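hiii so my PI (J.) wants the whole complex modelled not just the main chain, which honestly fair. so below is everything: four entries, each one labled with what it is. i double checked the lines twice but i was tired so who knows lol
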Amino acid sequence: MDDSTTGAQRLRDLRTRLLSQAAMQADRRVNEELARADARKWHYAVLATLDEFGAVSQAELSDRTRIYRSDLVAVINELAARDQVERAPDPADRRRNLITLTPQGRRQLHKLDKLLADVEDEVLAPLTAAEREQLARLLTALVEQHGQHM
Amino acid sequence: MDDSTTGAQRLRDLRTRLLSQAAMQADRRVNEELARADARKWHYAVLATLDEFGAVSQAELSDRTRIYRSDLVAVINELAARDQVERAPDPADRRRNLITLTPQGRRQLHKLDKLLADVEDEVLAPLTAAEREQLARLLTALVEQHGQHM
DNA sequence: GAACTAGCGTTAGTGTGACTAACGATTGGA
DNA sequence: TCCAATCGTTAGTCACACTAACGCTAGTTC
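here's the output for the full assembly
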């Protein structure tokens, strides 16, 4: 099921492809597990952000999670339908909605924290603790490069 | 534009998220450049595979590139429309189509080889040569884990 | 040689994620 | 008071991963 033996040499040599494939496999495992908890990545991103920053507007959530504000609408709908967040108009600025974490949302967050830690451990299983640190370091360097000039 | 300063601590700590983000940024750059050459990732995968393995069926292409055979149909259509491959029935087994690289396809492949090498270099710019090797090594370990039990 | 099974290419459709465009409502500043 | 900007929302595009089903062809078994 992987091309490490059957694929073209050129494809195996492409680091960008390697990166994509590793991410894809990790994402798949993450999404599988999240689905079993009736959640997806964005749900976690929103819940975690609300937990750390308190009630914020959708625009601020969009900034902090990097979810497009157009997509955020559906995410908040889903979370609200599960009573994990509340959406209420901001009295101070009636353009805004204030999104608040509910006790149920906080419980879900803790559940997902655990779940994601487990999946991460599974995905990184082939690496030692030192290698995991190294990987995080290298990936951070890549990600931050783009953070600079934007 | 990245959450390394504005995002929740929990999100920054998630290695699976880090991996996804790095892959996403790299993919975006790759796709941008490929688009300028009127191509996409799958085009390259197919062209490179044909170059290394000669004329093969779509089923074999699907195995070697990990493109689903249902999606491969459109990819071959696109490549054929650009005269980069030819699709002809296999006389030895009339269920099969034999896909062949054309001279034009080979030219495009060389062009994309260069293009992708440049993008890879740009994406990995923050890393030294040794670090790039290390990254490739770690990612390979992750990818091969899944290759095992499938 | 008829029937069955399996492989092949194709069509259609699902779900997720990234991303753009545009609109109505509201706000703050010139 | 008018203007520009911001906010939430709707709608839609594109790429990728993945599933289901169908018609055709090939090879095998009875």
